[in-house]
Recover the amino acids of this structure.
């Protein structure tokens, strides 16, 4: 049984003059202890997916339809009180910028102790001891002293380690990490990702890693979802997607990696930009940027289809696998 099962999840934003679809019927599963990557350019819907799973969407965004089964319960329709039992306790999220995540006017100790006591019946002394243990787990030196410090007194890498420690405080079953190293120096990023991988493996915690960095995904995850314009367009084992990408968009992401270009040569890039969710093209949303687009791509949105271990939404890939074009309305 999957720890998390997402089915046909659709998220919309009610704007002044129209309703915009940010996520369009996405479906995927995460098993207990599994590490799943979600990749794509800015605007693909990666972060919205994370916020929707945590039920943290704020107005004008809302979940329009679909199911998010977590531990056998559909949390989409949970009340705020019911979600407070889940958030931070069984499902935790690590955000992009630790300075936004941490409260600047509270000490590290106050924030960790309050988190623990909100979900567990603990004395302040007991909560402090657990906080110290968790800080040691993420290799924070002199953890007793750090409890008395404020976020601004710590380096960016130290703050992000503390955010990870807070996420692990209540031994969650699933962690959603949304670009957890974006605000950090390159030299610190690898250390943070190694730490997160080690902690997830040792604690048997499921991980959803949201990132645009395919290099990180290849090292951290077992399965990968590739998103484009609010849809999943390729999904499967990470090694297979990295080594043999099928969808033209995934191929473009791989080819755009710096290591794919010889020294002294211009970096390859996918032409054009991600379309606005308010003005998606007809048919396949990637067709204006695709070198392999044919007439049907401009008229009919491709359905996601399974080929062995990989799922792909592409007319041309389906044809290459012996499935004729389907003339259906978009």
């Amino acid at each position: 049984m999957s720890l998390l099962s997402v089915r046909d999840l659709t998220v919309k934003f009610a704007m002044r003059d129209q309703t915009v679809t940010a996520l369009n019927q996405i479906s995927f599963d995460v098993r207990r202890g599994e590490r799943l990557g979600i990749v794509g350019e800015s605007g693909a819907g990666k972060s919205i997916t994370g916020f929707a799973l945590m039920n943290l969407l704020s107005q004008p965004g809302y979940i329009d339809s679909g199911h998010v089964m977590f531990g056998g319960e559909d949390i989409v329709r949970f009340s705020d009180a019911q979600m407070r039992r889940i958030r931070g306790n069984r499902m935790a999220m690590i955000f992009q910028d630790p300075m936004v995540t941490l409260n600047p006017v509270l000490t590290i100790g106050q924030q960790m102790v309050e988190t623990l006591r909100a979900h567990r019946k603990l004395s302040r002394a007991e909560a402090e001891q657990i906080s110290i243990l968790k800080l040691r787990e993420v290799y924070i030196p002199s953890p007793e002293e750090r409890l008395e410090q404020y976020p601004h007194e710590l380096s960016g890498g130290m703050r992000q380690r503390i955010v990870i420690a807070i996420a692990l405080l209540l031994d969650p079953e699933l962690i959603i990490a949304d670009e957890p190293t974006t605000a950090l120096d390159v030299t610190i990023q690898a250390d943070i990702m190694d730490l997160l991988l080690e902690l997830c493996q040792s604690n048997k915690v499921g991980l959803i890693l949201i990132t645009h960095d395919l290099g990180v995904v290849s090292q951290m995850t077992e399965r990968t979802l590739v998103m484009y314009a609010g849809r999943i367009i390729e999904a499967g084992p990470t090694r297979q997607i990295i080594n043999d990408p099928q969808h033209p968009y995934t191929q473009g992401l791989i080819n755009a990696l710096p290591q794919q270009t010889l020294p002294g040569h211009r970096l390859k890039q996918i032409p054009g930009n991600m379309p606005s969710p308010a003005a998606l093209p007809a048919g396949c949303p990637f067709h204006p940027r695709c070198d392999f687009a044919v007439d049907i791509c401009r008229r009919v949105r491709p359905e996601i289809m399974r080929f062995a271990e990989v799922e792909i939404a592409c007319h041309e890939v389906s044809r290459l696998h012996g499935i004729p074009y389907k003339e259906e309305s978009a």
